Amino acid sequence: MKYSLKSVALLSFATLSINGYAKETLKGKVDKQAHTLMEKYNIPGISFAVIIDGKAQLYHYGYANIEKKSPVTQSTLFEIGSISKTLSSTMLSYAIQTDALSLNDKIEKYIPELQGSAIGQTDIETIATYAAGGLPLQFPSDVTHYEEMIRYYKNWKPEFSSKSHRLYSNVSIGLSGYIAAMSLNGQYSKLAEEKIFPSLHMTHSYIDVPKDKMADYAYGYNVKNEAIHVNPGMLDSEAYGVKSTAADLAQFILANMGLADIDPIMQKALDETRKGYYRVGSLTQGLGWEMYPSPFTLDTLLEGNSTEIIVNSKPISRSDFENKVMNDAWVNKTGSTNGFGGYIAYVPSKKLGIVILANKYYPNNERIQAAYEILKSAL
């Protein structure tokens, strides 16, 4: 089954011409990428937010719900998968800026049950940057509640020495978000929805979608084209549990680039997430964000977002940007659940960014190529 291409351009924060980048030219580029992706991967619905010179335009295509033929709109909520990690890291950075914790603190300081264990003696920076020594992508299937989670962490043995290898991991970064919320004397989901999202002017983003917003919550579609939503899991809120809109994530990009009116402490927290910690190939690891210093190319972006980098442990090296906030860089994060595929990227020095949200999984390389094709004339 193929879905008709239906486009709606909503000019949120937009002008008719953006630094000579004609609105119609931009729309044509987005239309082309949307049409190509939807046709190639049988995607029911997709939203784009494109930021040029600090001005955002929104484009929406297809269906949020095939059965009801509900169109994708500015209010459509998508599961953003691991893009959630950038918001979890924002909370962590905010906790640091408010002196609630330090990246040098040991995990056992916040979770006494882990005292004396390998993970308990690991510092927060290490788990926040996937460098604890081989924590896996997911928890084992039998870890379904807090006591089992603690038992798992307590018994875990590192495969590598701390800060020697990177292995992308929900189990790792999810724990850093959990501890960030503990340090702020709150529960993660509640703090995210009542403190972090509002402070960033993200007015239509949730971890637990309220009943009165469920009509906006798109269905994702799996490989069998079955309508699904994400299943619950340990530390899911912190690692992959946010539901948001292209408009809200555009607002998130603007805040990260210093182009939104937000609290100075929160602004500092956002800036600090773009500090480089180490390098893996072309990728420089920040807090949540993955960054590529200028001059970057499409090939370097594809390398850093490849399955090879995501799935396998890789030795790390010191970054040229260690402890430096990276502004002249392509800053990005992919995110997926079984029914959704998303991408967010921005270049602070260019006031340039993009969000792509779809209610079907499709390969990361296609997301990066689509984003790069749309933005390359403005780079």
What tags apply to this protein structure?
20% strand; alpha+beta; 379 residues; 12 helices; ten-stranded antiparallel β-sheet; 18 strands; Beta-lactamase; disordered N terminus
What would you call the structural class?
A: alpha+beta
Averaging pLDDT over every residue, what do you get?
A: 94
Helix content range = 25-40%
Strand elements, count? 18
Hey, roughly how much beta strand do the residues contain?
15-25%
Q: Outline, from the CA principal axes?
A: globular
Rg over alpha carbons: 20 Å
Q: CATH H level: which superfamily?
A: DD-peptidase/beta-lactamase superfamily
Detailed description of the structure:
With 379 residues, the chain is an alpha+beta fold. It has a single domain (7-91, 186-378), classed as 3-Layer(aba) Sandwich (Beta-lactamase). Helix content is 32%, strand content 20%. The chain has twelve helices and 18 strands. It has helices at 23-41, 84-97, 124-128, 146-155, 170-183, 188-199, 236-239, 246-256, 264-272, 298-304, 307-311, 364-375, and strands at 7-10, 17-18, 21-22, 45-52, 55-65, 70-71, 78-79, 165-166, 220-221, 227-228, 243-244, 278-280, 283-285, 290-293, 314-315, 329-337, 340-347, 352-358. Strands 1, 4, 5, 6, 12, 13, 14, 16, 17 and 18 form a ten-stranded antiparallel β-sheet that branches. A two-stranded antiparallel ribbon has the order 2-3. Strand 9 and strand 10 form a beta hairpin. Helix 1 (23-41) packs antiparallel against helix 12 (364-375), helix 2 runs parallel beside helix 5 and helix 2 (84-97) crosses helix 9. It is globular and about 60 Å long. The model is unreliable at 1-17 (pLDDT under 50).
